[in-house]
Design brief:
By secondary structure, the protein is mostly helical. It contains 14 helices and no strands.
């Protein structure tokens, strides 16, 4: 009877496996194959468990889910589904923790739920911010114009190199000087500085890639305005003359989901600043330095995580979706990094790729040439 029970379980598993092979041989891939594979795996586990119970006539020894994850015995495709509920519970706990202070304050009838004074200060000088932001984009068309003029032979290569170096320096120095003189609020100043750095990295990459092709006498097909404009708006810092992988269409549901994530993360950032940072800053003169640091450790850590996911998971993905840019590998599992070297490679892949190509490899070539 026990052996017959085990044989029935094995027969069930073999039947499901045969269904999987039939799907593969008939050309039916995708969801049908995944469903057949899942059914075969479940049938195999059920056969094992039924055989074990038929022999021992009682409960069986099994590991917990987290032990299976540590031993890497849980199938890879089952990991996201297994931890999905835990992820939702953690997000719910975080949301309740951040909503607790404003809700309690509202219940006590204290100051308004939305700190209007902070919003006015944070978004003050919007016109000046737009002007400074426009200045950061001037270097991009000038770089393209410089390469076009040089490709026509109207200026020498040495002149082209000198003018581009001057343009890069003016782009950074002029923008930073303008920010200091106009005394922009920190949020606006941070955004403008980041846009300045991104534009600097993009024009540097575009210039050097086109110059390399120019030295190889094959730059005619690279100096197209549409390619340059696409590179400026695409979520990448390295120019590829051969082009980028692209998606077939824009997914509206994906954009709606990312928009919801953006609103939630912005709300978290706003509550962090108004409910956790500003109260500590107002009491800075009356509390010790130790208490000041301790009270800000957790809010600062959450703030950095929220800014990271808002930038790399929301903004870059939205930009990639709008431009049909298919390479969405903007970061890796930096939280599992065992060294600073591994962390620097994983947490910001666009910047790492730029540094690897234009700093690391360029330094290697320079050292090799000197040697």
């Amino acid at each position: 009877g026990d052996r017959a029970c085990f044989q029935r379980g094995q027969a069930c598993w073999l039947a499901r496996l045969a269904g999987l092979l039939a799907c593969c041989t008939s050309g039916r891939m995708g969801g049908e194959v995944n469903q057949a594979l899942k059914s075969a795996r479940v049938g195999y586990y059920d056969a094992q468990a039924e055989h074990h119970r038929s022999i021992h006539r009682g409960p069986i020894a099994r590991d917990s889910i987290f032990e299976l994850l540590e031993k890497e015995e849980l199938p890879v495709e089952d990991v996201p589904r297994t931890l999905y509920g835990v992820q939702n519970a953690l997000w719910l706990i975080v949301a309740l923790a951040f909503l607790q202070p404003p809700v309690l304050r509202l219940g006590r009838g204290e100051r308004p739920l939305i700190d209007v004074e902070f919003l006015v200060w944070a978004f003050g000088g919007l016109g000046t911010t737009v002007q400074v932001l426009g200045l950061t984009l001037v270097a991009a068309p000038l770089t393209y114009l410089l390469l076009v003029v040089a490709s026509q032979g109207w200026i020498a290569k040495a002149t082209r190199e000198m003018l581009f170096r001057v343009l890069e320096c003016l782009h950074l120095v002029w923008t930073c000087r303008w920010i200091v003189r106009t005394t922009l609020p920190p949020p606006a100043a941070f955004f403008v500085v980041m846009q300045t750095v991104v534009t600097f990295l993009k024009i540097h990459s575009f210039y050097f890639e086109v110059r390399k092709l120019d030295d190889e006498k094959s730059a005619e097909h690279t100096l197209r305005g549409r390619d340059f404009l696409y590179f400026l708006v695409a979520p990448t810092l390295v120019y590829e003359p051969s082009g980028y992988p692209k998606t077939e269409h824009i997914r509206i549901r994906f954009l709606v989901r990312k928009t919801g994530s953006a609103i939630g993360l912005l709300l978290v950032l706003f509550l962090l600043i108004t409910e956790f940072f500003l109260p500590v800053f107002r009491e800075a003169r009356t509390i010790s330095l130790f208490e000041f640091v301790i009270r800000l450790i957790v809010p600062c850590a959450v703030f950095l995580l929220a800014v990271f996911f808002f930038t790399f998971e929301v903004l870059l993905n939205v930009a990639g979706e709008l431009t049909c840019f298919a390479d969405r590998s903007f970061y890796m599992d930096w939280w599992n990094a065992g060294s600073m070297d591994e962390f620097s490679r994983k947490w910001n892949k666009p910047v790492h790729e730029w540094l690897r190509r234009y700093i690391y490899k360029a330094s290697q070539r320079a050292v090799g040439d000197d040697a």
